[in-house]
Amino acid sequence: MSEHVMSSSEISFSHPPAEGTGRIWKIFWLLSFITVIELALGFGLAKHWYGDPVANASMILFVKGAICILSLAKAFYIVSVFMHLGDEIRNLIMTIVVPLGIFIWFITAFLWDGNSWKNLKNTDGGSHPPRTEQEQSVPVEQGAKP
To answer: What is the pLDDT of residue 120?
Structure first.
């Protein structure tokens, strides 16, 4: 019986160990550094927030924004390098990124709208002053003014 050996230039069974290892380690250390910065900001925020009764609102907002931006940078590197989206063609990347952006916009819009409804709740448009605790315990008769 003759043994038939097929060879192809597309199939390779030898994997050079150092081909992509340098890039992976570089991203690993970058993600570790970003995580350490996030933790330092978070612990500093907690110490400032709970330690100071009159916390500076603008500083707290800045730190929270910085943590969000650093988290988005980590998500970008994870998706780009470890999930190999950075090596794909532009159309495939846009197929994933554009719906994600719209989804984030929807979440922001719904939170904004929910907050406005929360603030308008039980205000009655400002036409009646709020009832006191004593007035709330006595039922209002039909036609009587509170």
So the answer is: 81
Q: How far apart are CA 5 and CA 41, in angstroms?
A: 60
Name the domain count of the chain.
Answer: 2
Among residues 74, 57, 64, the alpha carbon closest in space to that of 41 is found at 64
- Which tokens go with 55? 């916390």
In this predicted model, what pLDDT tens digit does every residue of 25-78 receive, in sequence order? 899 999 999 999 999 999 888 877 676 656 677 888 888 899 999 999 999 888
In-domain check, residue 130: no
Report pLDDT for 7: 54
Domain residues for the domain of 46 are 23-87
Distance CA 42, CA 34 (A): 12
- Does residue 110 fall inside a structural domain? yes
Residue 11 lies in a domain: no
pTM for the model: 0.56
Q: Are residues 47 and 59 in the same domain?
A: yes
> What single-letter DSSP state applies at residue 85?
G
